Amino acid sequence: MDNLIKVDKNIVLQRFHPIGKFSHKGIQGHALIIGGSYGKIGAPCLSAKACLKSGAGLVTAYIPKCGYEIMQTALPEVMVETDDYPTHIRAIDTKLKIQAVGIGIGIGQHLETQQAVFHFLKLNKAPLVIDADGINILSENKEWLEFLPPKTILTPHVKELERLIGAWKNEADKMEKVKTLSKTFDIVMVIKGAPTHLVYQDQVFENTTGNQSLATAGSGDVLTGIITGLLAQAYDPVDAAVTGVYIHGLTADIALPELGYHAFVASDIIAYLGKAFHTLYE
C-alpha cells in the first residue's frame, strides 16, 4: 500500500499531549458519551470510564432512564443525564458546554432513536466520534453524513464498514472506497481489524500494537471512549485517532504475560490504560 504510515511509539509521541503539571479538570476537557438502550447500558459504561481514564477532565453520559442507577453506581466519577423514556433514547436534550462527543455505543436503531440522532447531528458543532449503531444509523441515512463536523471520526468494524460503503472486490478496492468517503465528507475512518487501519483522505495509517485478546465484546466501546477523551483534550482528530488506537492495542500487549489471550476482556483494556499511557512518558 503506497504511503502507508506504520503507527509506532515514535509516530504517537509526535502527537501526544502530556498532561501539564498545573492542569486541572476545567482545562482537561468535558466529554459527552451518548448511548445505551435496555440491556446495553454496559456499552456507555465502558466508553465513559475509558474516556475518563484517557485524561478527560469531566465526562457526562447521556443514556435512557433505565441506565441511571447502573451508571451512577458503576461509575461515581461520571455525571449522568437521561432521556425521559425508559428503554431507549428518543431525544438528546442537553445544554452542556462540551469539548467532544462519542455517540452510538449500545444506542440501538429504534426509529425514535434515529430521529434523535438526526436532530443532534444537525445542531452539534463539537468534535465527534461515531461508533456501532451510530454508524449503522448513518448507513441507513447516508444524506446525514453532510451534517458531520469536519474530521468527524467513524470507527466501524468490517460489517459496519460494508453497510456504509458497500461490498468491495479486494483490499485495494476497499481502501479506495474508504478514501473516497473520507474526502467527500471530510471524515476520519478507523477501520477496526487485525491490523486496524486509519484513513484520512489520502493518508493511511496501520497500527502496530494489539493482539487477538482484543477480539472481545466491548473492545470497540472502550476505543470510542479513549478517542473521545483525547478529543476533549484538544487533540486534532487524526492525532486522537492515531494515539487512541495505538494505546488501545498496547493495553493488550502489556496484559498478555499476565492474562493471556482467553481471559482478557474489555474492562481489562481500561485497567491497563494507565500503564499504556505511562510508556509515553518514559
Explain the overall architecture.
It contains eleven helices and ten strands. The protein is globular. Helix 2 crosses helix 8, helix 5 runs parallel beside helix 6 and helix 8 crosses helix 9. It is α/β, with parallel strands linked by helices and 282 residues long. Helices cover 41% and strands 15% of the residues. It has a ten-stranded mixed sheet, sandwiched between helices.
Give a quick summary of the entry.
The protein is an alpha/beta fold and 282 residues long. It has eleven helices and ten strands.
Mean pLDDT across all residues, rounded?
97
What amount of the residues lies in strands? 15-25%
Lateral strand order in the biggest sheet: 1-10-9-8-7-6-5-2-3-4
Q: Which consecutive residue ranges, at least 5 long each, have pLDDT under 50? A: none
Distance between the termini: 32 Å
Global morphology: globular
DSSP helical segment count? 11
Bin the helical content.
Answer: 40-55%
* Extended strand count: 10
| Helix vs. strand class | alpha/beta
Supply Rg. 17 Å
Compressed to H and E, one letter per element, the order equals: EHEHEHEEHEHEHHEEEHHHH
Task: State the major sheet.
Answer: 10 strands, mixed
Q: Which secondary structure elements does this structure contain, and how are they paired or packed?
A:
Layout: E1 4-7, H1 9-13, E2 30-34, H2 42-53, E3 58-63, H3 68-74, E4 79-82, E5 100-103, H4 111-123, E6 128-130, H5 133-140, E7 152-154, H6 158-165, H7 171-185, E8 187-191, E9 197-200, E10 203-207, H8 219-232, H9 237-259, H10 266-271, H11 273-278
Parallel strand pairs: 1-10, 2-3, 2-5, 3-4, 5-6, 6-7, 7-8
Antiparallel strand pairs: 8-9, 9-10
